[in-house]
Design goal:
Blueprint: H1 2-49, H2 54-59, H3 65-74, H4 81-93, H5 107-142, H6 147-161, H7 164-178, H8 190-193, H9 203-210, H10 213-250, H11 253-260, H12 265-294, H13 297-302, H14 308-317, H15 321-349
Length: 355
C-alpha cells in the first residue's frame, strides 16, 4: 500500500510540474504578444511625431503638389491617425513594413540580407565575452578584495566607460594601419567579395561548409577586431555579474559543508559554486547577446560592417522611415524573444522558480 501511495504521489508531482511548466510557457507567450504589440504601437507613434514627412521622403521635396497628394493617398497617409495605426499594425504583423526608399526593395528583404552580418558579429563578441568574462569573474570572487579583484573590476569599468567608437578607431589605427595584424573595414576582402557565394549569410559558417579556408581566414581577419571590441564590452558585463553570483554562492552553507568534507578547492569552486551560479548567468548571457544586437550601430559604422546597425544608420540619415521603423521592430522583437527565452530557461534549469 505504501509503495502504491508513493507512486501516486510521484505521478501527482510530475503532473503538477508539467502543468506548471506549460502554464509558464503560456504566460510567456502572452507576455511576448503584449510586449510586441506595445513595441509596434510605440514605434508607430514615434514615427509619426518626428519632424519627417514620409511622403516627401518617398517622392522628394521638389515633387509637384499633385504627386505628393497622390502618394499620400496611395500609402494611406490621408487617413485618420487611428486608421493609419490599424493599417500599419495589420501589415507589420504580416512582416510587411513597406519598401525602402534607398534600395526600393521591401524592408524585410533588406533586413534578411543584413541581419546575418549583425548576428555573426554579435555571436563572436558574445563568445569572446564568455570565454574571458566567466573565468575573470570567478577569479575576482575567489580573490575578493585582492589586487587581482581590483584589476578585474578596473578592466570591467573601462569596458563600460570608454566609448566603443573611440576603441574601434584606435584598434584600426594600431592593429590594422600600424601592425597589419587584422584586415580593415568591411566584412570580406575585395578579392573574395564577388567570387564567394554565401549560403546562410554567416560568412564564417559558409566558408567552413564550402571548405574555402582562404575565405575563412580573410573573413576571420575582418571580424576579429570588431568582434573583440564587442566581446570586451560583453566581458565587462559578464565578469561583473559572474563575480556577484559567485560571491553569493561562496557564502552559502553547502560550500562550507563541501570544504568540510575535504573536497578540493577546484571542485568546490568550479563543480559546485559555479554550477549553481550558472543558472542566473543564462539570463545575463542572453541579455548581453541582445544588447550587442541592438547596440552594434556605432561598431558597424566605424568598421563599415554591412549589418542592420549600418542599415538603420544610413536609413535614418536619408529619412527612410519605413526602413528605420521596420529595423527597430525587428531588433526589438529579437530582444523580447531572447529575454523571454532566458526567463524560460531559468525556470527549466532552476526548479525552485516554478513554485
Amino acid at each position: 500500500m505504501a509503495n502504491t501511495a508513493d507512486r501516486v504521489s510521484t505521478r501527482g508531482r510530475r503532473r503538477s510540474g508539467a502543468s506548471s511548466l506549460a502554464w509558464s510557457i503560456l504566460s510567456f507567450l502572452v507576455v511576448a504578444a503584449i510586449t510586441f504589440l506595445g513595441l509596434i504601437t510605440v514605434t508607430f507613434f514615434i514615427g509619426r511625431v518626428i519632424p519627417i514627412d514620409p511622403v516627401l521622403a518617398i517622392v522628394g521635396d521638389r515633387a509637384p503638389a499633385s504627386v505628393v497628394a497622390a502618394a499620400r493617398k496611395q500609402y494611406g497617409f490621408d487617413l485618420p491617425l487611428w486608421d493609419q495605426y490599424l493599417l500599419y499594425l495589420t501589415k507589420a504583423l504580416k512582416g510587411d513594413f513597406g519598401n525602402s526608399v534607398l534600395s526600393t526593395y521591401p524592408v524585410m528583404d533588406d533586413i534578411r540580407r543584413v541581419l546575418p552580418a549583425t548576428l555573426e558579429l554579435a555571436t563572436v563578441g558574445t563568445i569572446i565575452g564568455l570565454l574571458l568574462g566567466i573565468p575573470l569573474g570567478v577569479l575576482a570572487a575567489v580573490k575578493r578584495d585582492s589586487l587581482i579583484d581590483q584589476i578585474v573590476r578596473v578592466i570591467g569599468l573601462v569596458g563600460y566607460s570608454v566609448p566603443i567608437f573611440w576603441l574601434g578607431l584606435m584598434g584600426l589605427l594600431v592593429f590594422y594601419a600600424r601592425l597589419g595584424w587584422v584586415e580593415g573595414p568591411g566584412r570580406i576582402g575585395v578579392a573574395y567579395e564577388y567570387s564567394f557565394t554565401p549560403i546562410t549569410g554567416l560568412f564564417l559558417v559558409d566558408a567552413i561548409l564550402q571548405g574555402d579556408w582562404d575565405v575563412f581566414r580573410d573573413v576571420f581577419r575582418h571580424i576579429i577586431l570588431p568582434g573583440a571590441l564587442l566581446g570586451y564590452f560583453s566581458m565587462a558585463y559578464i565578469s561583473r555579474m559572474t563575480r556577484s553570483f559567485m560571491l553569493n554562492e561562496l557564502s552559502q552553507e553547502y560550500i562550507v559543508a563541501a570544504r568540510a568534507k575535504g573536497l578540493s578547492e577546484t571542485r568546490v569552486i568550479w563543480g559546485h559554486a559555479l554550477r549553481n551560479a550558472a543558472v542566473p548567468l543564462v539570463t545575463v548571457i542572453a541579455l548581453s547577446y541582445a544588447t550587442l544586437l541592438e547596440g552594434s550601430v556605432l561598431t558597424e559604422t566605424v568598421f563599415a560592417w554591412p549589418g542592420i546597425g549600418s542599415y538603420l544608420y544610413n536609413s535614418l540619415q536619408n529619412a527612410d522611415m519605413n526602413a528605420v521603423l521596420g529595423g527597430t521592430i525587428v531588433i526589438g522583437a529579437l530582444f523580447i524573444a531572447l529575454n523571454l527565452l532566458s526567463d524560460l530557461l531559468y525556470r527549466v534549469l532552476d526548479p525552485r522558480t516554478r513554485t
